[in-house]
Amino acid sequence: MTSATSATAAPSSGGGRKDFNVAVVGGGIGGLTLAIGLHDRGVPVHIFESASKFAEIGAGIAIGPNAQNALQRLGLYESFLQFADFPSRNLFFQWRMGEGEEQRLLSETICKQYGMASIHRAELLDTFVKRMPTELCSFGKRLKDIQQPESAEGKVRITFEDGSTHDADLVIGCDGIHSRVRGALDRPTAGPSAVAGSDSLVWSGSWAYRGLIPRERFVAALGKEKGEFYADTAQMLLTKDSHVLIFPIHGGKTVNIVAFRTDRSRWPQRTPFPKGEAWIQETSKEELMRDFANYSSDVVKMVECIDKPSKWALHQVVPSLTSYINGRVIVAGDAAHGGVPHQGAMAGQAIEDALFLSNLLSHPRVKAQNLTQALGAYDRIRVPRANRVLESSLEAGDTYEFRGVAADDPAKLGEHLVERFDHIWDYDLDKEKQQMEEWLDANL
């Protein structure tokens, strides 16, 4: 077996106050945020990314009050503010009927704290990259295998496709919903979803068509008055088995649009994903317009602005993992609880994980000799929280498409959507940290 030193330069480690070191596998938003949090708190850490550089695919994402609160505690909020867009009145979304020319307003959801922010994924990542020392990052490192230590004093060995290896006291998989690290979990403890890659993931039935539309083009398509209103005001437009969302990014210069169409041919069961099909597919403008022809003329004009359409199959970890830990290998972010984006909460949960693990691993009582035991706090506190957000996200998509709460009563649906997100946004991070302290006092 080739060593990391002989294959590439030996990874450096940040900090120095702790007597153990951490390897973070995956350099997306969750992995990078976690690595920064650990490094800043004196935990030796090295991050391994499979790509040739830090990069995010996708478009605009929402960052809720809970995630912004976590970013403040991680010291990353000022960097985030450089590119974040905040709507007026702390608006999350206006909820409207997608059919009917009047686009009937059902309700609107207001954030009570901070306000719901939107930002392009790549911009968010770029702001954080500057905070991570380059010598603590290795690229082109696609995970091949993980070996648990043979003794309590031993280290976890990770092997990469290029033949190099790295030994660490703790390995944290932040390698996304297709996580290879997830396969290192113990299935009897974590459940049937503890499988590497995509084989255990369940298709939600939904395809998402994404587009980034220059503001000028968007306004021209709808006309000045309507166009400017919708370009500035986050909207969720709902119909049976479909919904369309829009919100501004890039300081209002761009409109992010995502149009969802769901196959419910086997409802209430989830439709199996067609074997052999790609998760991301190029498609025709004709197919796109056919899928959304039932909407009002304004929404049709919005969707028509999407050039070179592609569609993304939305999958989820189902059933939810019952444990994120196996010895000194753990998963976080989408690797632990990846799913559909219907509450604008998935990135936020990765950020919350990063804050929790940064606080836990930097805690004065956590040392190499009790590291495995200390990780129990992560399972005890984060699994219920993150899994609730994950499972309610899938339910949210059903609700938006008149297959869930108040499916036959739009007025009641509007009332429900006003408060549906409180359990996500109002999460008490101070209480979570106190629970962690109490758990450590009782168990270490």
From TrEMBL:
Identify the residues that the record assigns to the FAD-binding domain, covering every copy.
20-392
* Signal peptide boundaries: none
Which GO annotations describe the biological process of this protein? secondary metabolite biosynthetic process
Any Pfam family hit? FAD_binding_3
Q: Which InterPro entries match?
A: FAD-bd, FAD/NAD-bd_sf, FAD_monoxygenase
User: Which keywords belong to this entry?
Assistant: FAD, Flavoprotein, Monooxygenase, Oxidoreductase
Q: Which GO terms describe its molecular function?
A: FAD binding; monooxygenase activity
Q: What is this protein called?
A: Kynurenine 3-monooxygenase and related flavoprotein monooxygenases
**Species assigned in the record:** Pseudozyma antarctica (strain T-34)
